[in-house]
Amino acid sequence: MSLTLSGAITGATVSGLTSPTYTPTSITSPNNNSKSWSITALGGTQTGVDVHSASKPFTHTIFGPTSIRGLGTPNPVTGVIKSFPTNNYRLNTRKGVAPAASQPNQLCRISTVWEVPAGADSYDSANIKAAHSSHVGVLWGNSSSLCDTLLSGNI
To answer: Which residues are CB-neighbours of 27 under 8 A, at least 6 positions away?
Structure first.
């Protein structure tokens, strides 16, 4: 995988956090098809936010497919391809949170999954790029509203 988190991550705008940044440090990944980082330092104003610890993790892990799947073979008579496997990628964020006073920490989990049909990576890369760009744009451009939804339950 080519993803590398180096230097500070600039956090999106969320009410209550002023110019948030997060410093990642590479850690051992769960398997050979993943990369992991813990957040070891914070920047900006983030009152009450904790960096990674054993009891209150703050990690990002990217997972890739165990093996890249290819496009199925076209039927020699009809030319129809019957098998369209996907290559799945997943970015997980884990953050330890306190549910109430004097209670054990629990994990808040956020996951984005990309399901890319085999073959589209080379045949239609422009539209994969557009889908990704739009998805990230929705998250980035609506970060504060999405966070409000998580806190209020109102979509």
So the answer is: 36, 37, 38, 59
pLDDT digit string, tens, across residues 56-91: 999 999 999 999 999 989 999 999 999 899 999 999
Rounded to whole angstroms, the Cα distance separating 18 from 33 reads 35
CB atoms within 10 A of CB 113: 11
Evaluate if residue 117 carries a pLDDT over 70: yes
Q: How far apart are CA 62 and CA 56, in angstroms?
A: 20
Judge whether residue 96 has pLDDT over 80: yes
Q: Is the dihedral of CA 136, 141, 147, 152 positive or negative?
A: negative
The closest of 116, 119, 113 to 135, measured between CA atoms, is 113
Residues 6+ positions from 7 with CB-CB distance below 8 Å:
23
